[in-house]
């Protein structure tokens, strides 16, 4: 038994960090009525002890009598951690502590302890700045140009609301910060601002930008006090903060530095892996100018210089340590790394070629062509990482691959399999994400276009699967899915998935998945009625990969918690595609409301996206394929993009992706007459039903530009939409039909021709085959001059399209009274937005939660027409009439005179004004002119006035 005990001690010693000594630490807490110190202190003690570097004792000064009962001997400790906010210590106790510090003691001051002892000048010297009232010394920080400030003016110390923070490292070479990235996420916590004090002998190690002061306020700093060392942190409001990796690391490293003057504790992998960030020059040199982004973001095409080629990237994901994986349609799974250390990933490495798994001995992988690869594992179209394993969805199975510490592939094994499939080009396994319940969720693409589908007695095709944590039990979670490329799971554990328009799906969709839900696309064995989507995605065609930006990620603009959707774009239009941003809110009944805006137009044919620990979004651009066969071409194509929040980025890359106020030539009313005369309605619906031979045209103008529409009419075979391939059915009696498959199952094929829809029993079918060419004949615009062609195109563009712009002035994407207001944006030529002014946030009422304020105007480039403009104002500063008065002019004509919001609506209440204006010189310009104090506006709507019928 003694030998066994010694063995345990020896093993324990090996797994503990190897340090010369354990540093004795004393935590002093107590009396803080604003913070739950009784719960916080154990987390501080644990954060130190679990490093193996400290031995920790706690002294609770819960009342003044505690000191007389037995004051600590400070000389016994290498550092004192102060999380105390209360009355002054007894004179002898303070004298002992002051002597301890002057003789070389260590001190760590956590969060609210910065507010204690406001009149103690020696303590003020120890901390340099703290929570103090106006006039009690200087406040320090950095302005937004990076210049250090030291200002004796201003108000009392305060803090922002509890939330997630981006912390900026200021001195990366300091022992405490060495290994931390330039920017790191922390929270939820409070960001202190306007801290005051003597501001001497201080090194500011890290800061956070305050939304209140617009100053980069100190978050972490050190102070040299006589021979002593002091580390201060404003972080640590409650246990949510003190148990986070960012707090635990900065706190324990700060405590070690205060105690020993050096730091041996490592930075957590998820922080260290963030690595070098690209410089502004590096980012700008790799921005893709063809990608139009809404907001201050740089769309950077990664400069992949070496390693295996990207060949139709299908899925992309990141580990918590920042290792990026991307899968090729041809079967290779690659990692992407930054090898030249400029901050941008530049090299791919083969993790594994999954197409070789399962091949017979001696057989090689076929070279990519227009024939789908096989018979190895095929089409890796879904990927996720968990606990050291990469899970990948293939047509045949979900397989998991061990990710070794060096990023290479270890063992691999089948995780789940057993569903029906064939090697048909439409048999994919999508999604692959772990839910909050520990189960893996995945999607099987429908087989309704498969000429010979595999038997499916359980109705698993076209469904979402729920797979047990061990992979052994598979159940159908939801049914009626068509081409649902991906799913995303929010922090509440709710599941969402994208799905594509066509044959049973009248729109491009975002759905909220619930148990036994039926989502309407030819459901097999449904147990519930169809459920409508929560959003008709309008940003672009064919929504594919989707991912929530983590609520902890405040680095990617104000998008934390939002859903981002990769959109493939129109079939055959290889330059089409983009990204949608969706903000979801959940009501008391559990129902979600969704609002959407175009995040970017381009790059073309994006398939998937993911957020990395750095806070940036990585996007896989699929490139071009053989469209009819959905197979990779022999020549590799595809890219990976990295979207970086960059407030300084050139305005040409921060434009709104579309401007519906600027119309192209043509008169829609005349085009409708041509549409009827040419019998277009024989094959096309315009109401979203999609029940005829050709595609439905409703909302087509939202997702396809005029060049694409023109090509689709003049050369329809150039971009045939999936579901509308020309199919020839040969029956066993020798007869043939040419049309399209609307749906199919094991018993029948629903076949649409120009004149009818027919149910063909499977037992009567000899074969089905896709034949070249389009069901739509060419030359339908013959005899139409340019003006008439433009009229026809203008009519198609107008279907389902509202000619309106709505902006949330000074704010982000928001939905008010069933209308979506897009994020505020700066004006640039050809678009719309603000000129001048600043953003102000103040009210909790959605209509007036933010405003544009100061000296500003708005310009909307617009076609010559009449427009209705609706402005919403609110006042949450001035409480009395006459304190803020301003006027509004539209194209230099005053439309609102001497507006006094408090007088007309009252304090904190929205006020709406509507007027009409004609575009002049290709624009509508709204000027806001101060009479008394600065003007402000919260919501702006500009919409075309439709002519009377």
UniProtKB/TrEMBL annotation:
Record domain Cytochrome c: where: 666-800
Keyword Heme: yes
Pfam families, per the entry: Cytochrom_C, Malectin, ThuA
Source organism, top-level taxon: Bacteria
Name the UniProt record assigns to this protein: ThuA domain-containing protein
InterPro entries with a match to the protein in the record: 6-blade_b-propeller_TolB-like, Class_I_gatase-like, Cyt_c-like_dom, Cyt_c-like_dom_sf, Galactose-bd-like_sf, Haem-bd_dom_put, Malectin_dom, ThuA-like
UniProtKB keywords: Heme, Iron, Metal-binding
Source species: Luteolibacter arcticus
Tagged with keyword Cell membrane: no
